[in-house]
Model the fold of this input.
Amino acid sequence: MTLSDHLATANPALAQLLLSVADACVEIAGVVRRGGAEHSAAVSVNVQGEVQKGLDVMANDILIRVAARSPALVAMGSEEMDEIIPVRDAGPDGGYFLLFDPLDGSSNIDVNISVGTIFSILPAPAADPARPATEADLMQPGRNQVAAGYVVYGPQVTLVLTTGDGVAGFTLDPETLVWNRSAERMTVPARTGEYAINASNHRHWAAPVRTYVDELLAGKDGPRGRNFNMRWVGSMVADLHRILTRGGVFLYPWDRREPDRAGRLRLMYEANPMALIIAQAGGQAFDGTTDILDTPVTGLHQRVAVMIGSSEEVDHLKALHAAG
Ligand code: P6P
Done:
């Protein structure tokens, strides 16, 4: 079954937008695969104050150009763009907002480690009278998402997608450039023995996270009574694809180096889409206070602490945070 067949029963306007995003990712996959010094060359600094690499900009431009063709697309928000990109006024039936991180993990570009694209689709209500969208229109909680997905540009190019009824996986055929369904309904095992965190930040974490990781490190002689394994790719999409496939928990928590910053990852186009996917697959996503799908939205580029994956581990993290 192809992606197009899989979407045959979805809302036609939503399906068309999702297919255009998938088309953009096919084009991005081709650019990623070709490599080249210009991909990892620093070209500018984005709204996050982070160095934009050539491939970040190329992927962003591709997504904007290709997605804008979708008649139901009202506006876009991108990690790489300070302001939203109005595309067209919402029609009498409304439309959709598309938010994306065009290239997650770009620090891995020059060392040939998997990178990815993450996207989120929110409803764009009909405006009366019709008017261009504003940033405030896009500032909706994650639970409002009508679809979310990601693409991993790795040994295989894989698309994972939810439209609210489970999570499906697709693999890009490198010859035909067709997305073939490789998993009809992906689920996150509730129990896991694997965690993912940048352990070098241990001394900067809040107490509940330090306690959690120290328990894992204590292994079978510690309070958890079993040994755990650790993985850290440095590319959230790759880590979360592993977790969706075989279980695990991913953490990028608040840390005291920038106490006014809730976390490193962005809510609207990284944490929210991943939280919807993981929740649809039976897992959980927690920001240290609430489920990420309910995290109050204060800005297009706001950051959030992320603890996401196997349900039993997120429950344990919630208990440690509740205990303070
Ligand atoms: P660190 C990539 O830049 C990213 O936003 C995530 O994809 C990834 O999990 C994290 O940062 C890596 O952070 O601290 O290992 O550099």
Summary: The two ends are 48 Å apart (CA to CA).
